[in-house]
Amino acid sequence: MNGKLLEVKNLQVSFFTSVGEVKAVNGIDYSLGYNEVMGIVGESGSGKSVEAYAIMGLLQSPGRVVGGNVLFQGEDILNYDAKQMTDLRGNKISMIFQNPMTCLNPVYTIGNQLSEALTCHNKDISKADAKARAIEMLEFVGINNADKRFAQYPHEFSGGMRQRAMIAMALICDPKLLIADEPTTALDVTIQAQIIELMKDIQKKTDMSIVFITHNLGVVAEICDKVTVMYAGHVMEQGAVNDIFYNPQHPYTRGLLRSMPRLDSESHARMIPIEGTPVDLLDPPKGCSFGPRCEHCMKICLRNDPPLVQIGENGHLSACWLHVRHGAESKEAK
Amino acid sequence: MEKKAKKYNLFHTKVDEILSANEFTSADFESATAKEKEAMVETHKSVSYWRDAVRRFKNNSVSMVALVVVILLTLFAFAGPYMIPYSYEEQYRGSMKLGPFEYSESEQMAKQTLQDADAVFSTALMPGSLNSLRKGDFAFRFQGKWYQFTLSRTMRSGYLMIQADEAEPLFTVKEDDFVAGGSYDKTPVAFTVIDGKPTDANVTIITMSKSIFPHVFGTDSAGRDIMSRTMYGARVSLLIGVIASLIVLVIGAIYGSISGLIGGKVDFVMMRIVELIYSVPDVLIVLLLQVVLQTPLQIWFDTSSIPLVRALSTLGVGIVSIFITFALLYWVGMARIIRGQVLMLKEQEYVTAATVLGASNSRIIRKHLLPNSIGQLVVTTCLQIPSAIFLESFLSFLGLGISAPMASLGSMCSDAIDTITVYPYRLLFPAIILSLLVLSLNLVGDGMRDALDPRLKK
Amino acid sequence: MTSFILKRVGSALITLLVVAAATFFLMNAVPGSPFVTEKSTPEMVARAEAKYGLDKPMVVQFVNYVKGYFVGDMGVSLKMQQDTSVADIIFNQNKLTLSTRVGAFALLLAIILGIPSGCIAAYNRGNGVDGALRVITTIGVAIPGFVVATGLLVLVGVQLQWLPVRSGSLETASAFILPVIALAFYPSCYIAKLTRASMLDAINQDYIRTARAKGLKTGTVIFKHALRNSLIPVITYLGPLTAYVITGGFVVETTFSIPGLGKYFISSILNRDYPIIMGTTIVLAALIIFMNLLVDIAYKLVDPRINLSKGDE
Hints:
The complex is a heterotrimer of chains A (334), B (458) and C (313).
Chain A: E1 4-17, E2 20-33, E3 37-41, H1 48-56, E4 63-72, E5 75-76, H2 82-88, E6 93-96, H3 110-119, H4 127-140, H5 146-149, H6 159-171, E7 177-181, H7 189-205, E8 209-214, H8 217-223, E9 226-231, E10 234-240, H9 241-246, H10 251-258, H11 299-303, E11 308-312, E12 316-319, H12 321-333
Parallel strand pairs in A: 3-8, 3-9, 6-7, 7-8
Antiparallel strand pairs in A: 1-2, 1-4, 4-5, 9-10, 10-12, 11-12
Chain B: H1 15-21, H2 34-40, H3 49-59, H4 61-78, H5 80-83, H6 105-115, E1 119-122, E2 136-142, E3 145-151, E4 159-163, E5 170-174, E6 187-188, E7 191-194, E8 204-205, H7 226-262, H8 264-279, H9 282-303, H10 307-315, H11 317-329, H12 331-347, H13 349-356, H14 361-397, H15 409-417, H16 425-452
Helix pairs in contact in B: 3-16, 4-7, 4-16, 7-8, 7-11, 7-12, 7-14, 7-16, 8-12, 9-10, 9-11, 12-14, 13-14, 14-15, 14-16, 15-16
Chain C: H1 2-29, H2 42-51, H3 58-70, H4 86-91, H5 95-123, H6 128-142, H7 145-159, H8 173-203, H9 206-213, H10 218-255, H11 261-270, H12 274-302
Helix pairs in contact in C: 1-12, 5-6, 5-8, 5-10, 6-8, 7-8, 7-10, 8-10, 9-10, 10-11, 10-12, 11-12
């Protein structure tokens, strides 16, 4: 074992729409070890969710993986057939979603949906055992009166409760990897904090790894070990959580951090939004996709994709021509 | 010359490595101007709602074909009757029970006459049961000239034929029982050339035919031309569809918007009424209304002198009672939709924003409510047309809507059922036209819904 | 649940009363007495009106009329079968049985054909099977019922002569086939369209993604998670479907010469036999309203989200 649970290599996903190919994910790389939490950050439309669906094999037509590899425990799961994928999903890799209000089937009880996740991977388990396990999981995620709650329908649960139930459902088979696709976005701030606490707690108790997809940098700081910043289907910056927060190198990451409200900042520091609008993926700009919105944009940025370069220890990477320019300048200075 | 740099996509690439593998000029690292940055982003032209809707509709080939069919059927219904010499209500004596493209005996004779004549006038081609030539003065037009002749006695059935190839055009009047393939006598008629169309009311103008128009769809048991009746039936259907939909739109829009705008208790009561009408089995009540309305409407039409009522009475009791039915029962769906739209829009943030910005009520209605709900209004109204046609034909089929001599596709179908084993085509033509009409109107409506519904806009 | 049912039954009764009142007052609004014919004298008319209680004030008549219904007295026929009890005509002359038989078979056929074809179309979305089904169902919902009925009559009965043209009292199985198909054609197409649309809608729901993410097999996802949700709109259609089958029955019975209640109802309308018109209208309306009631309760059972306290919407 190479110590990596998940390796994503040059993953490319496109949507083939009637008006043309939309390159939603345009070659991203990252790797995740055991017991690690990777945050994937980006604004809406940056391809972060699509990338997660691609890993889970949940892409809906017209979306398709057009290149790259996804190695899970060393095996390329993009080559798996439907049956292998079905066995993997919910069992080894689980996923929770953004909107807990719509993610549970309204016409079945929570208990039914929970035990179903267990029995479909474990045919031998008895109904009573499945129920016991489901109730145990509900308790584990902090739902009181779990045996009563077991028989209730989703509409009888609050948003936060539903997300807890979703987490319980995802964890019921003890997966190695949990992909959390904006699990707190649709929730109230106080509930958000509770869910984050719960996930941190669970992550400590199990040796599960998490891919945490969010646009909320605060959440990333709370829970993640590593961070990948995405923009328009490209990786912009990647590194350990401290490097990203305290030593951001990419103009986009800096912009994101500047646009975030901070309690610890010095007096009167303003929140500065990133100018411009996200790219139109149908018709992406030729060079750096962030170029049109970048305050440091150079001529070369308009022509060529920036290289993803190593700029620090612990795999701190950044895709920006500025780093090349600094390199060239310091070389000249010598 | 612009220098092309390689595309880098290597994992863990060191800056030094990139620098040694490529040459960069200082020009590369010059800051880009704002203009250059802007040029990078190709902005898509924003397309107006209507233009976008038209584009989407045009891309929908099924709806486009359906639209063409609707246009053709409309021409058939409204222009068609002027193209054929037969009327929908006249019973052509001797032309009963003809199949498609069949000619009656007298028409066959006229056709035969035309073999050696250039134009013919036959009493058999005249509508009505009195197709004899009464004694008196007649005038006709031939090759740009007006001619007049006098008949000294009434003829039971007569033919007037013209042979222009003679030195002088020869006019012949013939009165005989025609035997197919047989010959007939020619009796030349004295005629005079006159200047222009005679103004004397006593002179009967007759039309010379250069050919005998066939009964394309055949005739019914009473000798009525089925094609002409089908055309009028389609016309009646379209008129009912459009007018009933407009009635529904107006009543529904007024009721729905009042209910939605006022809200509160008024809304509650108004909506309970709507629910009640909604839950009443509509067709049963419609049937009752047809029974109930016939007599009083007829009396009203016969006695009233109000111009509007007189105009309505020309439509006939059957059609007007269908309009009343729609006005009483079928507006509830539209009222619900419009109330829903009004309520939804009332609570939309942009409307709140407009209010906060100080927009007046009329401006909000004009700029926000209307453009946002017009799509749905148009679509619902359009889809109401085929369902109105549906209901009218259903009633007429059961003998409760429009009845002879007025033509309706539904009553034509039901008339045809009695003789279905002998004359199936009498059912076929009105049924096909009706189905085509309803189907294509539905498809056009569906296409418009897809084109106009902004929620489907991607 | 009990309060929901009670409330729903209450509103059904109100609707029925409204229908009864509408029927009664509409029938009475027709000018002229039903006994006026060319030969009748004023005395004869007055005697006949007194005999049938038509000389009393309108409201008294209505109250008597409603009272009568509670004890099964629906009046007597004035013209069609003079002095025969309307209740007898409706319930004891095999008319209702004939109509119900055709209607029930058509209802069943529509469901049996409609739901699976809708599922098949949704499953094959975009390919030839879906396309073919879409053409059939689009035509099926657009063509008026009597065109289908008469079309079948001409094609199968007259041209091919496979099945009898007049079904009569439906004594043979072959007499059943055409009327039932004719009556079931529109609703099967409608149900198929509805099922397809709601199935596709359900498939795109978030909970389907959740179900797939759990690792459920495609079959389980479709049949357990998507189908049950997509059947909800189909269930709500069962009320209007019953109404359609009843009114469509008028056409089918007329076309195929079946002496059922529908055909009789239409004749009674054409003959202005008011007690029969009123009686039949109220019986049929009660049937439709009762079916709507059942559907609402079934809907409630299938979809746990429906709020117990609210009757409508």
